[in-house]
Amino acid sequence: GADAPDDDDDDDDDDPENRIAKKMLLEEIKANLSTE
Amino acid sequence: NKGQCMSAENKKLFEEFVDYCSGLTEDHPEVIPFLKGRLANANQTYLSSVEFRNVLGRCLTRVQSKRSKIYVYINELCTSLKANSQKRKLTLKP
């Protein structure tokens, strides 16, 4: 039979809270690099 | 020496968190070094505190059970470390 879909491979971009945290973090890193 | 063993325990937890997250943030390799930089800038009192151990333990447990929120927990850890960074005194030249 067909393999069960790999449902634990949850993409981190699906979760809105995670998407916002990721955006904030990457912006902070960029700002941090520009001030160094 | 209680502070030292707490500090060592927290360091081990932090490395466990970093090891787990490194594999999941390969699309942004700058994130983990940034988190390590935040740790390097944090004051020693906080790094050997129960508070930091609780934050680490909570983030590690949650990220292992909910990988889809990985950046939420990395951000939480960065924020707690930033809030306890060493206050660098700027010595103004006369």
What does this protein structure show overall?
The complex is a heterodimer of chains A (36) and B (94). Chain A is an all-alpha fold. In chain A, 56% of the residues lie in helices and 0% in strands. Chain A is built from one helix and no strands. Chain A has one helix spanning 16-35. Chain A is rod-shaped. Chain B is an all-alpha fold. Chain B has helices at residues 2-22, 31-41, 44-47, 50-65, 70-83. The longest helix of chain B is centred in the first third of the chain and has 21 residues, at 2-22. Classes of the chains: A mainly alpha (36), B mainly alpha (94). The A-B interface holds A 10-12, 14-15, 17-19, 21-22, 24-26, 28-29, 32-33 and B 24, 28, 30-31, 34, 37, 67-72, 74-75, 78.
Helices and strands, with pairings:
The complex is a heterodimer of chains A (36) and B (94).
Chain A: H1 16-35
Chain B: H1 2-22, H2 31-41, H3 44-47, H4 50-65, H5 70-83
In short:
The complex is a heterodimer of chains A (36) and B (94). Chain A is mostly helical and 36 residues long.
Order of helices and strands of chain A: H
Instruction: Give the N-terminus to C-terminus distance of chain B in angstroms.
Output: 41 Å
Secondary structure tally, helices of chain B: 5
Largest sheet of chain B: none
Shape of chain B: globular
- Helicity range of chain A: 55-70%
Measured distance between first and last alpha carbons of chain A: 56 Å
Low-confidence segments of chain B, given as residue ranges, are none
Keyword list:
heterodimer, A: 36 residues, mainly alpha, 1 helix, 0% strand, B: 94 residues, 70% helix, globular
